[in-house]
Amino acid sequence: MKFHLADTSRINIIRSYTDHEVIVNDRRYVASLVVSANSIIDDWTPRRFDDLCEADFVELGALEPELVILGTGTRLRFPDPRLTLGLSSKRIGIEVMDSRAACRTYNILVAEGRHVMAAILIEHPEDTAPD
Questions:
Q1: What is the pLDDT along the chain (131 residues), one digit of tens a residue?
Q2: Cα–Cα distance for residue pair 85/40, rounded to 1 Å
Q3: Exposed site from 41, 100, 129, 130, fewest CB < 10 Å?
Q4: Domains of the chain by residue range
């Protein structure tokens, strides 16, 4: 088996992540964002999982990725399937995982040259309603 070093110098790579921030390339983000190989949307509207709405997924679908990886914050939560119809109607896949796993998975897939985007919710204690 022959291995090739992937050249990731021209794509957005998530370098670091914690529960309350993500570092893409050399820039720190402390609010929810969407990352793809060529672009970053650093003002993605939902701030908490409960803020997710159908329009958020329609917006992601308009960017036409092959797959959206949704990072749902510090724990895995699944959005109501009615919210993601904007993706499934365009035959765009969606994978849901906690934000840390979403960051790792995004890096692997984007390094493979896949047309993937990560929609990462970065929640802060002051943003989270009590359970």
A1: 444 445 556 899 999 999 899 999 999 999 999 999 999 999 899 999 999 999 999 999 999 999 999 999 999 999 999 999 989 999 999 999 999 999 999 999 999 999 999 999 998 777 555 54
A2: 23
A3: 130
A4: 30-124
Q: Say which CATH class 30-124 falls into.
A: alpha beta
DSSP string, 74-116: SS-----TTTTHHHHTTT-EEEEE-HHHHHHHHHHHHHTT--E
- The Cα–Cα gap between 37 and 19 comes to 22
Beta pairing class for 67-71 and 93-97: parallel
Reported pTM: 0.88
